[in-house]
């Protein structure tokens, strides 16, 4: 690893994706079990609608910004056997670019090139990441957007940062959690009291950042609304707020959502027992947002990328819907945190965390398989228990992450003291 | 009202002997006659009760069809070859812009079928609206209150006559605004009466002396050109004629039977993505040049099809389907069963028969095809762990291009607007395959859908809340202690260690 150049790492990860992509084409042709992700068919169908000057929202379950279907416009070109995979190439290229930026940003934080490449490999050479993008899932694009955001923030490109953030939120809502972190990070250091801390928010940079972020977010929304009207708002934003996700997924809320959204038949033995008016599921956003976008940003000054990692991890963990693609959201930020983590410092903890994370996830997948394909009733307690266990493991990991970040001294002061952070 | 009764005797049976039929002055006595029977009633608009007038007045064309999902046999069926997936099918074409509110309240009131409005309960096929109820016990529910309403409280004979329709193998009610007539046609594959071998012992007698009943006892007239059916036998106008008159008729027919059987079942385990596998004993050839083999599915909740999956030609080919011609109705891919207001969807599939026929010489195996389905989540229940979901078998038929189509309506037994024939050119005739019931009494397959048992609802609620609270406070606590704890010291240690 030591002697390998950045170029060769990028070539290697490109080759990895190319092999996956070609294998996928082969499997799609030869097997009825498709390699291509269902969502990719949604995107490309939507792109076809766009190519015919109609709305991508005519495609059922298209719940994304129209920009995505525009990006995939070339997938409608002929010959199809060449152009259909354009989107996968684009997503894979996004992966590679994200990986390249990870290397760059890690070096800003004082990583040597070799060490940066080693951690970036967590993303670049990760078969899960390569699979997800070459199957045609757009989550990889989000990776590059988030790392680009991090890069431009670290480079103090305030206008660009705001523009990227606005774009990211337009693209997939959740990056809004990074806004408070970045604003806090931009504050002048060592404010003695609360008043000056508050004043710190009103610096020129913070204002410019906020205004550009808001402008790019709203600008894109207004433009898309002007073109596609109400369906744009409904499918891109409102759907995610009102969706009734009763189908099983990793979220600990899942069984409860099924129970509460279904018509309720009282038990004849205990007819008085009704569902409580407790609306835990409606209040799910409270713990989620409290941790991910209010409390965790307070650590931004100490270590921005690790804080963003923790925020994303918390956002996904406490979400009402969790699917494995969401894991990509925090995986892209993992290289920035892992180096300074206890999971590396004390390999036993690291192993326990990894094994527990994989094991509880596997437990859930086993239960879900039995339900989905064998028709076994595993809703309760199996599936619920597995989701709860996975959630608790995630919370424990999050606790360790928070502890690690809290132990870090401010990055800038480290830089100013030693010139380089000791890692 | 006009009434016509047809007994169709299979050529395999002994022909109706002289003593089987005895025509007296005002009645026809029939004894020990093994036959398919069709009773047809024709009413003019003015003869209809007011509440029926209210319903049909809003429709350009209205078809209510019922099929009991039983009585399939391989006997000769003559013009009565077409069947439908079991249950009740309603096809309605509104008159101008009518919302057909009376039809909706009619089926709600008399059939107890939920109908908020045509818009929300029927699926839309352009102007044509369609409702399907996969219930084979629906007829008595409809006919009992209907009989009371039509006959008045005391006329038992009248009510019995109406209720007798509920034993029919298939029942059609048709109204069209052009002719302003309402036709009811009931077909019994065998007698439901007391005779064990399903033969008919009946007396046909007009209700009043002014009435006449047209009766025909017919059997196959022997070989006839393709597309045509020829019948011979005896006809009489009971109440008018003194003797049975011999008859020989032939006419082009839209529907024919084909001596092929099929059966269906889910592949197991079914899971939440069941597949219905249909096996056809097809033989090695198609009935005529240019025919396609098709399957017509009516797919009720909680099943649904994913139209995008069905568009995947390669996948469908691997399932023995050439292409999916039609998917219409409720195809929401995410919503649970309780959020659905429509009954489901219909699918018309063209089977990949060319592939099958080309390998038939070598393999000589039955043809198979598969329809991939999915299940919606179903409501929780305190006592159950699963719900039974039932899918009617599809109707499988050859569709062949016809040269005589303009004459088909001359068929006195013609049947059109069945739900699938509208998707074919009008100049098409059909050869129907016959379902073969082996492990079931009805032409349908069932499976169990796992549901969340809600007896532990309290535990689920508090358990979930508990887990969330524990997870939240663990993280929350770490954050707080990181802020207020002696983090400075730890930083030192941390730095030293590294």
Ordered list of secondary-structure elements with their pairings:
The complex is a heterodimer of chains A (423) and B (498).
Chain A: H1 6-30, H2 38-51, H3 66-71, H4 80-83, H5 86-108, H6 113-124, H7 127-134, H8 139-154, H9 158-172, H10 178-186, H11 194-201, H12 204-228, H13 230-242, H14 254-261, H15 285-295, H16 304-317, H17 327-331, H18 334-338, H19 342-345, H20 347-374, H21 379-407, H22 411-418
Helix pairs in contact in A: 1-5, 1-6, 1-7, 5-6, 5-7, 5-8, 8-9, 9-12, 10-16, 12-13, 15-16, 16-21, 20-21
Chain B: E1 2-9, E2 21-23, E3 28-33, E4 36-44, H1 50-56, E5 59-67, E6 87-94, H2 101-111, H3 118-121, E7 123-125, E8 128-133, H4 138-151, H5 156-164, E9 170-176, E10 181-188, E11 200-204, E12 213-220, E13 228-238, E14 245-252, E15 255-266, E16 275-281, E17 292-300, E18 303-304, H6 307-310, H7 313-318, E19 321-329, E20 344-351, H8 353-363, E21 367-372, E22 374-375, E23 386-392, E24 395-401, E25 428-435, E26 444-450, H9 457-484, H10 487-497
Parallel strand pairs in B: 1-12, 15-25
Antiparallel strand pairs in B: 1-4, 2-3, 3-11, 4-10, 5-6, 5-9, 6-8, 7-8, 9-10, 12-13, 13-14, 15-16, 16-21, 17-20, 17-24, 18-22, 19-20, 23-26, 24-25
Helix pairs in contact in B: 1-2, 4-5
Give the uncertain stretches of chain A in residue-range form.
411-423
The value of Rg of chain A in angstroms is: 23 Å
Q: What spatial order of strands do you see in the largest sheet of chain B?
A: 7-8-6-5-9-10-4-1-12-13-14
Percent range of helical residues of chain A: 55-70%
Shape of chain B: globular
Number of helices of chain A: 22
In percent terms, what proportion of residues of chain B is strand? 35-45%
Could you tell me the number of beta strands of chain B?
A: 26
Share of helical residues of chain B: 10-25%
Q: Main interface pair?
A: A-B, 71 and 62 residues
Tally of alpha and pi helices of chain B:
10
| Largest β-sheet summary of chain B | 11 strands, mixed
Largest sheet of chain A: none
Cα-based radius of gyration of chain B, to the nearest Å: 29 Å
Q: What would you call the structural class of chain A?
A: mainly alpha
List the helices and strands of chain A in order: HHHHHHHHHHHHHHHHHHHHHH
Q: Decide which structural class fits the backbone of chain B.
A: alpha+beta
Shape of chain A: globular
Count of β-strands of chain A: 0
